[in-house]
Amino acid sequence: MTKVKVCGIRRVEEAQWACDAGADAVGFVFADSKRRIDVETAARISASLPPHIMKIGVFVNESKENLKEIYSTVNLDFVQLHGEESVSFCENIDLPLIKAIPIKEEADIIGMDQYPGELVLVDSGKGPFRGGNGTTFNWEYVEAIPLSHQLILAGGLNPENVREAILKVRPFMVDVSSGVETDGKKDRKKIESFVRKVKSV
Q1: Can 19 be counted among the known catalytic residues?
Q2: pLDDT digits (tens, 9 = 90+) for 75-109
């Protein structure tokens, strides 16, 4: 069954909504974003979560030292890297990682298999931020590629389109942020609807 990550969590109650709905992971954004969270708040939310919930930190071109410090302080399970981090950088940080690949065109999938780790995230390459822009990409680019990684699908997913996305791409996990928000804030009913749609596929 496809797993669900609710990203851009900023409040304890939002994390609780995700847990109660049956999500498998939550994401904290430490990069430049309207959903950015400070380390202390993320650590407090992380400590409130049951142990089976994956905690993933989102970073853009962060230093190895800061990655390790935040990973430890927040008790993260993965660091998710959305910048220009090289394969060698990823191999040398010695942390469980998810490399995010922005997809604008089919050629953008070339080289994805070079990154270490079991997971890779594909996101839309459109919009002002490195993720969380609410835009989709052409899922046909990734639905047929043989991968050594398990795929996390992100980019413009919402309760209306996630079933089609799962049937096309067959990802290990889907990642939602703006698709479960109303007026820029997490919406409990949308989170519940999204998770329900995913788990019904």
Answers
A1: no
A2: 999 999 999 999 999 999 999 999 999 888 888 88
Q: Could you give the 3-state DSSP secondary structure of residue 147?
A: coil
The token pair at 175 is 């990642």
| pTM to 2 decimal places | 0.93
> Does 108 qualify as catalytic in the annotation?
no
Delineate the domains of the chain, giving CATH numbers in brackets: 3-200 (3.20.20.70)
Length of the chain equals 201
Q: Which one of 7, 19, 90, 175 is the catalytic residue? A: 7
- Give the Cα separation of 79 and 65 in Å (integer): 13
| Tokens 């950088």 sit on residue | 89
Catalytic residue among 24, 90, 123, 175: 123
Structure tokens at 169: 């791409």
User: Which residues lie closer than 8 Å to 195 by C-beta, 6 or more apart?
Assistant: 4, 18, 21, 22, 23
Mean pLDDT value across residues 37-65: 97
Q: How far apart are CA 134 and CA 123, in angstroms?
A: 10
CA pair distance 170, 181, nearest whole angstrom: 24
How far the first Cα of the chain sits from its last, in Å, is 8
Tokens for 131, please give them.
Answer: 């993720």
